[in-house]
Amino acid sequence: VADWLPHDLLIKLDRCLMAHGVEGRTPLIDPQVAAAAFRLPDVLKVRDGRGKYLLRRWVEQHAPAARPFAPKQGFTVPIGNWIAAEGARLGTLVASDEAIAAIAHPDRVRALFVDAASSRARHAAWTLLFYALWHRAHVRAVPVDGDVFEVLGSAG
């Protein structure tokens, strides 16, 4: 662990942040902060199954908009909106892909893409789109670099 943090995790963090021009701080790994945290009674570290209790209480008092006790929320990508915005065009391309045509009815595939705003169709459309791209890249060994419309519209 002593080697893993500075030589792996912190390097990855730094590279990710620097790639996007973002400055990052990791104050909780400072040796003095860690030593102070170890001296705290357990009741201030964990309460009701939540760690960093004292820190969360401080944030709650000084920056309540941060909602430090709120449940974690995953980051979701609005794929349904992206696909639905170009559903008719994208659906036609995916439906005509040979890998998709071998496993699904083209009319139903096109309909899924047109209806991609609904959660059920969104997931199915996303899966078919990436299966078509994966099949091109890994089964047919066709490059999939560039715009998805160009890739799916090209012979290969």
TrEMBL record:
PANTHER family for the chain: ASPARAGINE SYNTHETASE, ASPARAGINE SYNTHETASE (GLUTAMINE-HYDROLYZING)
Annotated protein name in UniProt: asparagine synthase (glutamine-hydrolyzing)
Recorded GO MF terms: asparagine synthase (glutamine-hydrolyzing) activity
Lineage: Bacteria, Pseudomonadati, Pseudomonadota, Alphaproteobacteria, Acetobacterales
EC number: 6.3.5.4
Start and end residues of each Asparagine synthetase domain: 2-136
Reactions listed under catalytic activity: L-aspartate + L-glutamine + ATP + H2O = L-asparagine + L-glutamate + AMP + diphosphate + H(+)
Any single GO BP term: asparagine biosynthetic process
Class in the EC hierarchy, top level: ligase
Gene3D superfamilies: HUPs
Pathway as given in its UniProt record: Amino-acid biosynthesis; L-asparagine biosynthesis; L-asparagine from L-aspartate (L-Gln route): step 1/1
A family per Pfam: Asn_synthase
GO cellular component, one term: cytosol
Cross-referenced InterPro entries: Asn_synthase, ASN_synthetase/amidase, Rossmann-like_a/b/a_fold
